[in-house]
Amino acid sequence: MTVDWNGLAELMRRHEKFVLTTHVRPDADALGSQLGFAGLLRHLGKQVKIINASAVPPRLKFLDPDGECRQLGPDWSEQSVLEADCHVILDTSSWVQLAELGKLFKKTSAVKVVIDHHASADDLNALDFKDVTAEATGSMVFDLAESQGWPLTPTMARALYCAIATDTGWFRFPSTTSATMRRISRLIDWGAEPAVLYGALYEQCSLGRTRLAGRCLSRMMIDAGGRLAWTYITLVDYRETGAEPTETDDLVNEGLRLAGVEAAYILIEQPNGNVKASLRSRSHLDVSAIAEKFGGGGHRQASGAMVPGPMTEAQVKILTAMKTLFPT
């Protein structure tokens, strides 16, 4: 898909006060694209605040050494959000994913911009700069910079590298192309260090997370003639293993390691009683269609949704829905 980078660049030049936000429970693509975009705005001399509904997960704080990504409430007031003349929403097109910030965006007359690569979308009453063929929102921010000849700092390069690397499963997902690797090459030129970033992302697990992974793997179940794998995590598991809720990232992919498995999912109990469902596939199967049935969304091969609890009922609902991907 073609994005009008000149149009976006002109919009950036026209406005002075920006607030950037992303989805709840931000991942490396969400944070990396925010930090990269904020750096471009500062290059233009703009005032920028990064205000999210959720705090930066501890394991991703290395991406934000200066503490730019801050949280609504503890760090920034509602008035801080409303003072902007341009709100930029990155890596989501969903009202639900914006949580309390979505309510503020509905109040303001500021220009709203969406930069996103997800197929699922709500009407956010915004100027959309979308490319569902992009492997990551971080790729789009990088392409914007390249199109305008804007420089990157090493911090920006590291953030955008991690955005792309994580959303491509460290370049093993089908979304990885030769264009992906050309972007990565340029980010290395700007200061990204692959070995250092891999270590920061994947080799800093706590003992609690390792124990949680073991428990999660011990529950792995197979269905649909060996083509579907799934597991789950309860609130009790956190207490008994010493893991944190933010340490569940990537556990869903363990199901895809099994021979013959074409789709996998993990159900994670939430403090409010709901259950987060993370869905993955490694074939032609479209798990976003399943997520959308429960008010969620994402990509064909990586999607998610929040399902009403309790866990036992959520297990039945998601298993029934996922098995429809495998008609007999």
Task: Produce the secondary structure layout.
Elements: H1 5-14, E1 17-21, H2 28-43, E2 47-52, E3 69-71, H3 78-82, E4 86-90, H4 95-98, H5 100-107, E5 111-116, E6 127-130, H6 137-148, H7 154-167, H8 178-189, H9 194-202, H10 207-218, E7 221-223, E8 228-233, H11 235-241, E9 263-269, E10 275-281, H12 287-293, E11 297-298, E12 302-307, H13 311-323
Parallel strand pairs: 1-2, 1-4, 2-3, 4-5, 5-6, 8-9
Antiparallel strand pairs: 7-8, 9-10, 10-12, 11-12
Helix pairs in contact: 1-6, 2-6, 2-7, 6-7, 7-8
3D structure, described in words:
- The chain is α/β, with parallel strands linked by helices and 328 residues long.
- It folds into 2 domains: 5-201, inorganic pyrophosphatase (n-terminal core) (Alpha-Beta Complex), CATH 3.90.1640; 207-323, Roll (Diaminopimelate Epimerase, Chain A, domain 1).
- It is 39% helix and 18% strand.
- The protein is built from 13 helices and 12 strands.
- A 6-stranded parallel β-sheet has the order 3-2-1-4-5-6, covered by helices on one side. A 6-stranded mixed β-sheet has the order 7-8-9-10-12-11, sandwiched between helices.
- Helix 2 links the parallel strand 1 (17-21) and strand 2.
- The protein is globular, with a radius of gyration of 19 Å.
- The model has no long low-confidence stretch (mean pLDDT 94).
